[in-house]
Automatic annotation (TrEMBL):
<keyword id="KW-0812">Transmembrane</keyword>
<protein>
    <recommendedName>
        <fullName>Aldehyde ferredoxin oxidoreductase N-terminal domain-containing protein</fullName>
    </recommendedName>
</protein>
<dbReference type="GO" id="GO:0051536">
    <property type="term" value="F:iron-sulfur cluster binding"/>
</dbReference>
<feature type="transmembrane region" description="Helical">
    <location>
        <begin position="409"/>
        <end position="431"/>
    </location>
</feature>
<dbReference type="InterPro" id="IPR013983">
    <property type="entry name" value="Ald_Fedxn_OxRdtase_N"/>
</dbReference>
<keyword id="KW-0472">Membrane</keyword>
<dbReference type="InterPro" id="IPR051919">
    <property type="entry name" value="W-dependent_AOR"/>
</dbReference>
<dbReference type="GO" id="GO:0016625">
    <property type="term" value="F:oxidoreductase activity, acting on the aldehyde or oxo group of donors, iron-sulfur protein as acceptor"/>
</dbReference>
<feature type="domain" description="Aldehyde ferredoxin oxidoreductase N-terminal">
    <location>
        <begin position="1"/>
        <end position="184"/>
    </location>
</feature>
<dbReference type="Pfam" id="PF02730">
    <property type="entry name" value="AFOR_N"/>
</dbReference>
<keyword id="KW-1133">Transmembrane helix</keyword>
Length: 500
Protein backbone atom coordinates (compact mmCIF):
# COMPACT_ATOMS: atom_id res chain seq x y z
CA UNK A 1 0.00 0.00 0.00
CA UNK A 2 1.29 3.47 -0.95
CA UNK A 3 0.82 6.40 1.43
CA UNK A 4 1.95 9.95 2.23
CA UNK A 5 5.15 11.12 0.56
CA UNK A 6 5.61 7.65 -0.97
CA UNK A 7 2.17 7.90 -2.58
CA UNK A 8 2.99 11.37 -3.96
CA UNK A 9 6.17 10.01 -5.60
CA UNK A 10 4.34 6.92 -6.87
CA UNK A 11 1.72 9.09 -8.58
CA UNK A 12 4.31 11.35 -10.20
CA UNK A 13 6.21 8.35 -11.56
CA UNK A 14 2.96 6.75 -12.77
CA UNK A 15 1.62 9.87 -14.49
CA UNK A 16 4.67 11.80 -15.69
CA UNK A 17 7.20 10.42 -18.16
CA UNK A 18 10.86 10.83 -17.30
CA UNK A 19 11.46 13.22 -20.24
CA UNK A 20 8.85 15.74 -19.05
CA UNK A 21 9.98 19.29 -18.32
CA UNK A 22 9.01 21.54 -15.38
CA UNK A 23 6.44 23.72 -17.16
CA UNK A 24 5.06 21.10 -19.58
CA UNK A 25 1.29 20.65 -19.42
CA UNK A 26 1.99 16.93 -19.03
CA UNK A 27 3.86 17.56 -15.77
CA UNK A 28 1.73 16.84 -12.70
CA UNK A 29 1.32 18.41 -9.29
CA UNK A 30 0.46 15.82 -6.66
CA UNK A 31 -0.78 16.59 -3.15
CA UNK A 32 -0.76 13.80 -0.57
CA UNK A 33 -1.62 14.28 3.11
CA UNK A 34 0.34 12.02 5.46
CA UNK A 35 -1.28 8.70 6.38
CA UNK A 36 -2.23 10.08 9.79
CA UNK A 37 -3.25 13.62 8.83
CA UNK A 38 -6.90 14.09 9.77
CA UNK A 39 -6.59 11.74 12.77
CA UNK A 40 -5.72 12.42 16.41
CA UNK A 41 -2.10 11.35 15.98
CA UNK A 42 -0.13 14.42 17.15
CA UNK A 43 1.85 16.78 14.91
CA UNK A 44 0.49 15.22 11.70
CA UNK A 45 -0.57 18.41 9.92
CA UNK A 46 1.86 17.94 7.04
CA UNK A 47 1.14 17.48 3.35
CA UNK A 48 3.57 16.48 0.61
CA UNK A 49 3.40 18.36 -2.67
CA UNK A 50 5.37 16.81 -5.52
CA UNK A 51 6.08 17.63 -9.15
CA UNK A 52 8.76 16.85 -11.74
CA UNK A 53 11.61 19.28 -11.18
CA UNK A 54 12.97 19.60 -14.72
CA UNK A 55 13.56 17.56 -17.87
CA UNK A 56 16.78 16.10 -16.50
CA UNK A 57 15.79 15.95 -12.81
CA UNK A 58 13.50 13.74 -10.79
CA UNK A 59 10.89 14.80 -8.25
CA UNK A 60 10.79 18.08 -6.36
CA UNK A 61 9.00 17.84 -3.02
CA UNK A 62 7.54 20.43 -0.67
CA UNK A 63 6.58 19.39 2.86
CA UNK A 64 3.97 21.92 3.93
CA UNK A 65 2.47 22.75 7.31
CA UNK A 66 -0.99 24.15 8.04
CA UNK A 67 -4.52 22.80 8.52
CA UNK A 68 -4.89 22.08 4.76
CA UNK A 69 -3.57 18.53 5.16
CA UNK A 70 -5.89 17.62 8.06
CA UNK A 71 -8.92 19.11 6.29
CA UNK A 72 -8.17 17.40 2.97
CA UNK A 73 -7.61 14.06 4.73
CA UNK A 74 -10.87 14.62 6.63
CA UNK A 75 -12.61 14.45 3.23
CA UNK A 76 -10.97 11.00 2.91
CA UNK A 77 -8.82 12.19 0.03
CA UNK A 78 -5.52 10.28 0.01
CA UNK A 79 -4.05 12.26 -2.91
CA UNK A 80 -4.87 14.77 -5.63
CA UNK A 81 -3.24 14.69 -9.08
CA UNK A 82 -3.40 17.80 -11.26
CA UNK A 83 -2.23 17.56 -14.88
CA UNK A 84 -2.63 20.04 -17.77
CA UNK A 85 -2.84 23.83 -17.91
CA UNK A 86 -5.70 26.24 -17.51
CA UNK A 87 -6.37 28.53 -20.46
CA UNK A 88 -8.57 30.79 -18.35
CA UNK A 89 -7.72 34.51 -18.28
CA UNK A 90 -7.76 34.59 -14.51
CA UNK A 91 -5.73 32.06 -12.58
CA UNK A 92 -8.01 29.34 -11.25
CA UNK A 93 -8.87 28.25 -7.71
CA UNK A 94 -9.56 24.58 -7.02
CA UNK A 95 -12.03 23.98 -4.19
CA UNK A 96 -12.41 20.73 -2.23
CA UNK A 97 -15.40 20.27 0.05
CA UNK A 98 -17.86 17.70 1.39
CA UNK A 99 -19.99 18.14 -1.76
CA UNK A 100 -17.14 17.51 -4.18
CA UNK A 101 -14.36 19.30 -6.03
CA UNK A 102 -14.84 22.21 -8.40
CA UNK A 103 -12.80 24.81 -10.23
CA UNK A 104 -13.49 28.53 -9.79
CA UNK A 105 -12.52 30.44 -12.91
CA UNK A 106 -14.00 33.82 -12.14
CA UNK A 107 -12.30 34.92 -8.96
CA UNK A 108 -10.42 38.08 -9.72
CA UNK A 109 -7.12 37.07 -8.14
CA UNK A 110 -4.77 37.84 -11.02
CA UNK A 111 -1.53 39.27 -9.58
CA UNK A 112 -3.08 39.61 -6.13
CA UNK A 113 -0.63 39.65 -3.23
CA UNK A 114 -0.95 36.82 -0.75
CA UNK A 115 -2.92 38.57 2.02
CA UNK A 116 -5.49 39.88 -0.52
CA UNK A 117 -5.78 36.41 -2.04
CA UNK A 118 -6.49 34.89 1.39
CA UNK A 119 -9.03 37.61 2.24
CA UNK A 120 -10.90 37.20 -1.05
CA UNK A 121 -10.99 33.41 -0.78
CA UNK A 122 -12.15 33.51 2.83
CA UNK A 123 -14.86 36.02 1.88
CA UNK A 124 -16.09 33.54 -0.72
CA UNK A 125 -15.62 30.20 1.09
CA UNK A 126 -15.70 31.07 4.76
CA UNK A 127 -13.18 31.97 7.43
CA UNK A 128 -12.29 28.37 8.12
CA UNK A 129 -11.10 27.66 4.59
CA UNK A 130 -7.56 26.26 4.54
CA UNK A 131 -5.59 27.57 1.58
CA UNK A 132 -2.37 26.77 -0.29
CA UNK A 133 -1.47 29.05 -3.18
CA UNK A 134 0.90 31.47 -4.83
CA UNK A 135 1.60 35.20 -4.98
CA UNK A 136 2.19 37.33 -8.10
CA UNK A 137 5.79 36.08 -8.46
CA UNK A 138 4.49 32.51 -8.90
CA UNK A 139 2.11 33.68 -11.63
CA UNK A 140 5.13 35.14 -13.45
CA UNK A 141 7.08 31.89 -13.02
CA UNK A 142 9.95 33.33 -10.98
CA UNK A 143 12.01 30.38 -9.70
CA UNK A 144 12.28 32.19 -6.33
CA UNK A 145 8.51 32.02 -5.87
CA UNK A 146 7.15 29.61 -3.29
CA UNK A 147 3.83 28.33 -2.00
CA UNK A 148 1.94 29.99 0.82
CA UNK A 149 -0.06 28.02 3.33
CA UNK A 150 -2.56 29.44 5.81
CA UNK A 151 -2.40 28.81 9.55
CA UNK A 152 -5.54 28.15 11.60
CA UNK A 153 -7.95 31.02 11.06
CA UNK A 154 -8.54 33.98 13.33
CA UNK A 155 -5.07 34.42 14.71
CA UNK A 156 -1.73 35.90 13.68
CA UNK A 157 0.36 35.12 11.78
CA UNK A 158 -2.20 34.29 9.12
CA UNK A 159 0.06 32.37 6.73
CA UNK A 160 3.64 31.53 5.82
CA UNK A 161 5.57 30.96 2.59
CA UNK A 162 7.49 27.72 2.38
CA UNK A 163 11.16 27.17 1.60
CA UNK A 164 12.10 25.37 -1.59
CA UNK A 165 9.99 27.01 -4.31
CA UNK A 166 7.35 25.40 -6.57
CA UNK A 167 5.22 28.55 -6.86
CA UNK A 168 6.31 28.78 -10.50
CA UNK A 169 4.96 25.28 -11.26
CA UNK A 170 1.53 26.31 -9.92
CA UNK A 171 1.85 29.50 -12.00
CA UNK A 172 2.69 27.53 -15.15
CA UNK A 173 -0.59 25.60 -14.78
CA UNK A 174 -2.58 28.77 -14.12
CA UNK A 175 -3.43 27.69 -10.55
CA UNK A 176 -3.63 30.53 -8.02
CA UNK A 177 -4.90 28.61 -5.01
CA UNK A 178 -6.22 25.35 -3.63
CA UNK A 179 -8.90 25.59 -0.98
CA UNK A 180 -10.40 23.08 1.44
CA UNK A 181 -13.76 24.37 2.55
CA UNK A 182 -14.56 21.68 5.09
CA UNK A 183 -14.76 22.50 8.81
CA UNK A 184 -13.42 19.29 10.36
CA UNK A 185 -9.77 18.60 11.08
CA UNK A 186 -10.03 15.06 12.47
CA UNK A 187 -12.68 13.29 10.39
CA UNK A 188 -10.45 10.99 8.36
CA UNK A 189 -11.56 7.39 8.33
CA UNK A 190 -9.87 5.32 11.04
CA UNK A 191 -10.61 1.64 11.54
CA UNK A 192 -9.78 1.44 15.24
CA UNK A 193 -10.38 4.83 16.87
CA UNK A 194 -9.64 3.66 20.40
CA UNK A 195 -6.40 1.97 19.32
CA UNK A 196 -5.18 4.98 17.38
CA UNK A 197 -5.87 7.33 20.26
CA UNK A 198 -3.96 5.03 22.67
CA UNK A 199 -0.94 5.04 20.36
CA UNK A 200 -1.33 8.78 19.66
CA UNK A 201 -0.91 9.41 23.39
CA UNK A 202 2.26 7.28 23.50
CA UNK A 203 3.68 9.20 20.54
CA UNK A 204 2.74 12.56 22.06
CA UNK A 205 4.44 11.61 25.32
CA UNK A 206 7.67 10.68 23.53
CA UNK A 207 7.66 13.98 21.65
CA UNK A 208 6.93 16.28 24.59
CA UNK A 209 9.34 14.58 26.96
CA UNK A 210 12.27 15.32 24.66
CA UNK A 211 14.31 18.40 25.65
CA UNK A 212 14.25 19.87 22.12
CA UNK A 213 10.66 19.05 21.09
CA UNK A 214 9.12 19.59 24.52
CA UNK A 215 11.48 22.32 25.72
CA UNK A 216 13.60 24.34 23.31
CA UNK A 217 11.22 24.43 20.34
CA UNK A 218 8.13 25.54 22.27
CA UNK A 219 10.37 27.76 24.43
CA UNK A 220 12.45 29.55 21.81
CA UNK A 221 10.55 28.63 18.66
CA UNK A 222 12.31 27.51 15.52
CA UNK A 223 15.18 29.94 16.22
CA UNK A 224 16.32 26.89 18.20
CA UNK A 225 17.14 25.35 14.86
CA UNK A 226 19.39 28.26 13.97
CA UNK A 227 21.27 27.69 17.22
CA UNK A 228 21.53 23.98 16.54
CA UNK A 229 23.05 24.62 13.14
CA UNK A 230 25.99 26.09 15.08
CA UNK A 231 26.01 24.03 18.28
CA UNK A 232 24.47 20.66 17.33
CA UNK A 233 23.45 18.69 20.42
CA UNK A 234 25.29 21.13 22.68
CA UNK A 235 22.55 23.73 22.49
CA UNK A 236 22.19 25.77 25.70
CA UNK A 237 18.67 25.44 27.15
CA UNK A 238 19.37 27.38 30.35
CA UNK A 239 17.37 30.54 29.52
CA UNK A 240 14.37 28.60 28.35
CA UNK A 241 12.30 28.85 31.53
CA UNK A 242 12.35 32.68 31.51
CA UNK A 243 11.41 32.77 27.86
CA UNK A 244 8.54 30.33 28.41
CA UNK A 245 7.16 32.58 31.15
CA UNK A 246 7.31 35.60 28.85
CA UNK A 247 5.65 33.63 26.08
CA UNK A 248 2.77 32.70 28.35
CA UNK A 249 2.36 36.35 29.35
CA UNK A 250 2.27 37.58 25.75
CA UNK A 251 0.18 34.68 24.48
CA UNK A 252 -2.57 35.91 26.78
CA UNK A 253 -2.29 39.44 25.40
CA UNK A 254 -2.11 38.58 21.71
CA UNK A 255 -4.26 36.23 19.70
CA UNK A 256 -1.31 34.38 18.22
CA UNK A 257 -1.02 31.06 16.43
CA UNK A 258 1.33 28.85 18.39
CA UNK A 259 0.94 25.84 16.10
CA UNK A 260 0.69 25.55 12.31
CA UNK A 261 -2.26 23.20 12.67
CA UNK A 262 -4.36 21.75 15.50
CA UNK A 263 -2.84 19.13 17.85
CA UNK A 264 0.76 19.78 17.13
CA UNK A 265 2.21 18.90 20.55
CA UNK A 266 5.40 20.85 19.87
CA UNK A 267 3.97 24.22 18.92
CA UNK A 268 7.13 26.03 17.84
CA UNK A 269 5.33 28.73 15.92
CA UNK A 270 5.66 32.35 16.95
CA UNK A 271 7.52 31.47 20.13
CA UNK A 272 10.57 33.55 19.33
CA UNK A 273 10.37 36.39 21.79
CA UNK A 274 12.19 39.45 20.58
CA UNK A 275 13.69 41.90 22.98
CA UNK A 276 10.84 43.93 24.40
CA UNK A 277 7.24 43.03 23.73
CA UNK A 278 7.30 41.93 20.13
CA UNK A 279 6.90 38.46 18.73
CA UNK A 280 8.40 37.28 15.49
CA UNK A 281 5.63 37.08 12.94
CA UNK A 282 6.83 33.78 11.53
CA UNK A 283 9.61 31.21 12.03
CA UNK A 284 11.09 32.31 8.69
CA UNK A 285 11.65 35.77 10.18
CA UNK A 286 14.38 34.46 12.48
CA UNK A 287 16.06 32.84 9.48
CA UNK A 288 15.82 36.09 7.49
CA UNK A 289 17.38 37.91 10.44
CA UNK A 290 20.28 35.42 10.46
CA UNK A 291 20.63 35.61 6.65
CA UNK A 292 20.79 39.43 6.70
CA UNK A 293 23.49 39.27 9.34
CA UNK A 294 25.49 36.70 7.38
CA UNK A 295 25.12 38.22 3.91
CA UNK A 296 25.04 41.97 4.64
CA UNK A 297 26.25 42.30 8.24
CA UNK A 298 22.86 43.91 9.04
CA UNK A 299 21.78 43.25 12.64
CA UNK A 300 18.27 44.68 12.71
CA UNK A 301 15.24 42.65 13.78
CA UNK A 302 12.69 45.23 12.64
CA UNK A 303 14.29 45.33 9.18
CA UNK A 304 14.26 41.50 9.02
CA UNK A 305 10.56 41.60 9.86
CA UNK A 306 9.86 44.11 7.07
CA UNK A 307 11.78 42.10 4.47
CA UNK A 308 10.10 38.87 5.52
CA UNK A 309 6.60 40.37 5.34
CA UNK A 310 7.22 42.04 1.96
CA UNK A 311 8.64 38.81 0.54
CA UNK A 312 5.70 36.78 1.84
CA UNK A 313 3.20 39.18 0.27
CA UNK A 314 4.82 38.55 -3.11
CA UNK A 315 4.85 34.79 -2.47
CA UNK A 316 8.64 34.51 -2.22
CA UNK A 317 11.00 32.26 -0.29
CA UNK A 318 12.22 35.07 2.00
CA UNK A 319 15.50 33.45 3.12
CA UNK A 320 16.61 32.55 -0.39
CA UNK A 321 15.59 36.07 -1.42
CA UNK A 322 18.17 37.59 0.93
CA UNK A 323 20.95 35.39 -0.46
CA UNK A 324 19.87 36.10 -4.06
CA UNK A 325 19.94 39.87 -3.48
CA UNK A 326 23.36 39.53 -1.86
CA UNK A 327 24.72 37.57 -4.83
CA UNK A 328 23.31 40.06 -7.33
CA UNK A 329 25.06 42.99 -5.63
CA UNK A 330 28.28 40.99 -5.36
CA UNK A 331 28.04 40.28 -9.09
CA UNK A 332 27.77 43.99 -9.95
CA UNK A 333 30.45 44.86 -7.35
CA UNK A 334 28.18 47.10 -5.33
CA UNK A 335 28.33 47.35 -1.57
CA UNK A 336 24.66 46.91 -0.67
CA UNK A 337 22.92 48.30 2.41
CA UNK A 338 19.27 48.39 3.51
CA UNK A 339 18.32 50.85 0.79
CA UNK A 340 19.67 48.57 -1.95
CA UNK A 341 17.85 45.56 -0.48
CA UNK A 342 14.55 47.45 -0.56
CA UNK A 343 15.44 48.59 -4.09
CA UNK A 344 15.95 44.97 -5.18
CA UNK A 345 12.53 44.02 -3.80
CA UNK A 346 11.00 46.89 -5.77
CA UNK A 347 12.64 45.59 -8.95
CA UNK A 348 11.01 42.20 -8.31
CA UNK A 349 7.63 43.89 -7.75
CA UNK A 350 8.02 45.75 -11.07
CA UNK A 351 9.17 42.53 -12.78
CA UNK A 352 12.00 44.50 -14.35
CA UNK A 353 14.93 42.69 -15.95
CA UNK A 354 16.92 43.11 -12.71
CA UNK A 355 13.92 41.90 -10.69
CA UNK A 356 13.56 38.81 -12.87
CA UNK A 357 17.30 38.15 -12.61
CA UNK A 358 17.20 38.30 -8.80
CA UNK A 359 14.04 36.17 -8.93
CA UNK A 360 15.96 33.47 -10.77
CA UNK A 361 17.64 32.55 -7.43
CA UNK A 362 21.35 32.30 -6.79
CA UNK A 363 21.72 29.59 -9.47
CA UNK A 364 20.14 31.84 -12.12
CA UNK A 365 22.21 34.85 -11.12
CA UNK A 366 25.42 32.84 -11.20
CA UNK A 367 24.68 31.39 -14.63
CA UNK A 368 24.22 34.98 -15.87
CA UNK A 369 27.59 36.01 -14.44
CA UNK A 370 29.38 32.68 -14.72
CA UNK A 371 32.67 34.30 -15.79
CA UNK A 372 32.86 35.63 -12.22
CA UNK A 373 33.93 32.37 -10.62
CA UNK A 374 34.39 34.06 -7.22
CA UNK A 375 30.57 34.03 -6.97
CA UNK A 376 30.30 30.24 -7.15
CA UNK A 377 30.68 29.56 -3.40
CA UNK A 378 27.63 31.79 -2.74
CA UNK A 379 25.26 29.72 -4.89
CA UNK A 380 22.75 27.88 -2.72
CA UNK A 381 23.18 24.12 -2.96
CA UNK A 382 20.75 21.40 -1.87
CA UNK A 383 21.28 20.51 1.82
CA UNK A 384 22.23 16.95 0.90
CA UNK A 385 25.47 18.37 -0.60
CA UNK A 386 26.63 18.96 2.98
CA UNK A 387 26.38 15.22 3.74
CA UNK A 388 30.13 14.66 3.34
CA UNK A 389 30.99 17.31 5.96
CA UNK A 390 29.35 15.32 8.78
CA UNK A 391 29.60 11.94 10.40
CA UNK A 392 26.10 11.12 11.60
CA UNK A 393 25.85 9.17 14.86
CA UNK A 394 22.48 7.73 15.86
CA UNK A 395 22.90 6.82 19.54
CA UNK A 396 20.16 4.27 19.59
CA UNK A 397 18.33 2.35 16.88
CA UNK A 398 16.58 -1.04 16.86
CA UNK A 399 18.86 -4.11 16.88
CA UNK A 400 17.39 -5.50 13.62
CA UNK A 401 18.44 -2.28 11.81
CA UNK A 402 22.08 -2.41 12.85
CA UNK A 403 23.08 -3.34 9.26
CA UNK A 404 21.75 0.02 7.98
CA UNK A 405 24.25 2.89 8.25
CA UNK A 406 23.31 5.71 10.62
CA UNK A 407 23.05 8.11 7.69
CA UNK A 408 20.71 5.84 5.71
CA UNK A 409 18.67 5.28 8.87
CA UNK A 410 18.37 9.07 9.27
CA UNK A 411 17.12 9.45 5.67
CA UNK A 412 14.74 6.50 6.05
CA UNK A 413 13.26 7.97 9.23
CA UNK A 414 12.77 11.35 7.55
CA UNK A 415 10.90 9.60 4.74
CA UNK A 416 8.78 7.72 7.30
CA UNK A 417 7.79 11.02 8.94
CA UNK A 418 6.77 12.34 5.51
CA UNK A 419 4.80 9.15 4.84
CA UNK A 420 2.85 9.51 8.09
CA UNK A 421 2.51 13.33 7.77
CA UNK A 422 4.46 13.96 10.97
CA UNK A 423 6.23 17.32 11.24
CA UNK A 424 9.99 16.93 10.74
CA UNK A 425 10.60 19.01 13.89
CA UNK A 426 9.58 15.93 15.87
CA UNK A 427 12.58 14.08 14.40
CA UNK A 428 14.77 15.07 17.39
CA UNK A 429 12.52 13.04 19.67
CA UNK A 430 11.58 10.20 17.35
CA UNK A 431 14.68 9.19 15.41
CA UNK A 432 16.61 7.81 18.39
CA UNK A 433 13.60 6.28 20.10
CA UNK A 434 13.69 2.49 19.85
CA UNK A 435 9.91 2.07 20.23
CA UNK A 436 8.92 4.47 17.51
CA UNK A 437 8.73 2.01 14.62
CA UNK A 438 6.65 -0.35 16.71
CA UNK A 439 4.23 2.44 17.68
CA UNK A 440 3.96 3.54 14.05
CA UNK A 441 3.23 0.00 12.91
CA UNK A 442 0.40 -0.12 15.49
CA UNK A 443 -0.86 3.26 14.26
CA UNK A 444 -0.75 1.95 10.67
CA UNK A 445 -2.89 -1.03 11.65
CA UNK A 446 -5.41 1.10 13.58
CA UNK A 447 -5.76 3.49 10.64
CA UNK A 448 -5.93 0.99 7.77
CA UNK A 449 -6.83 -2.38 9.28
CA UNK A 450 -3.79 -3.83 7.51
CA UNK A 451 -1.34 -5.73 9.72
CA UNK A 452 2.24 -4.59 9.39
CA UNK A 453 5.45 -4.67 11.39
CA UNK A 454 8.27 -2.22 12.16
CA UNK A 455 10.63 -3.72 9.57
CA UNK A 456 7.99 -3.25 6.84
CA UNK A 457 7.52 0.41 7.76
CA UNK A 458 11.23 1.05 7.29
CA UNK A 459 11.43 -1.17 4.20
CA UNK A 460 8.70 0.89 2.53
CA UNK A 461 10.61 4.11 3.17
CA UNK A 462 13.85 2.60 1.78
CA UNK A 463 11.94 1.43 -1.31
CA UNK A 464 10.48 4.94 -1.71
CA UNK A 465 13.98 6.42 -1.73
CA UNK A 466 15.24 3.85 -4.23
CA UNK A 467 12.29 4.47 -6.52
CA UNK A 468 12.95 8.23 -6.46
CA UNK A 469 16.62 7.66 -7.35
CA UNK A 470 15.66 5.42 -10.29
CA UNK A 471 13.26 8.08 -11.61
CA UNK A 472 15.97 10.73 -11.25
CA UNK A 473 18.45 8.51 -13.15
CA UNK A 474 15.93 7.78 -15.92
CA UNK A 475 15.25 11.51 -16.31
CA UNK A 476 18.96 12.19 -16.68
CA UNK A 477 19.37 9.36 -19.22
CA UNK A 478 16.35 10.55 -21.20
CA UNK A 479 17.71 14.05 -21.49
CA UNK A 480 21.10 12.95 -22.81
CA UNK A 481 21.21 13.92 -26.47
CA UNK A 482 23.50 12.58 -29.17
CA UNK A 483 26.33 15.00 -29.86
CA UNK A 484 26.23 15.12 -33.66
CA UNK A 485 27.66 18.15 -35.57
CA UNK A 486 25.03 20.77 -36.48
CA UNK A 487 25.84 20.13 -40.16
CA UNK A 488 23.66 17.03 -39.88
CA UNK A 489 20.56 19.15 -40.65
CA UNK A 490 21.86 19.58 -44.23
CA UNK A 491 22.50 15.85 -44.51
CA UNK A 492 19.02 15.02 -43.13
CA UNK A 493 17.55 16.92 -46.03
CA UNK A 494 19.95 15.55 -48.64
CA UNK A 495 19.30 11.94 -47.65
CA UNK A 496 15.60 12.30 -46.85
CA UNK A 497 13.63 9.47 -48.51
CA UNK A 498 10.69 11.69 -49.37
CA UNK A 499 12.85 13.93 -51.62
CA UNK A 500 13.59 11.85 -54.70
S1 LIG B 1 6.39 21.63 15.26
FE1 LIG B 1 6.26 23.76 14.70
S2 LIG B 1 6.48 23.70 12.43
FE2 LIG B 1 5.94 21.65 13.08
S3 LIG B 1 3.71 21.55 12.88
FE3 LIG B 1 4.21 22.09 15.03
S4 LIG B 1 4.12 24.30 15.10
FE4 LIG B 1 4.28 23.72 12.95
Amino acid sequence: MEYGRGLAAFLIIKNVSSGTDRYDGSNAIVLAPGLCSGTLVPSTGRITIASKKSKSDGIQFADIAGPFSQKLASLDIAAVVMIGKSNSQNPITVVFSEVGTHIEKNMNLKEAVVSDTINEIRKEFGLEAAIIGIGPTGEHLLPLSSLFSTYPEGKVPEYHCTRGGMGDIFGSKGIKALVVKSKGHFNAEVLDKEGISKNAKKLGKIIVSHPICGGALPGYGSITLMKMLKQGRKIDLSKQSNISKNIKKYSKLCNINKTCSPICVIGCLNRHLKEGDNMYSSPAESEVYAALKEAFNIDDKAFASTINKEAFELGLDSVELVFSIALYYKAIDKNAKKEEIIGALDEIKKLSVIGRLIGSKTQGIYSFYSDKTNLKPFVTKPSVNEEGKFSVLIKSKPEYLKHISDLDYLYAMMTILGNFGICLFSAFALIENEDILYILSEVFFCKTGIKTEPSKIIKYSLNCMEREITFETNSKLDSVQKTIPEFVKVLYRYFDRSIK
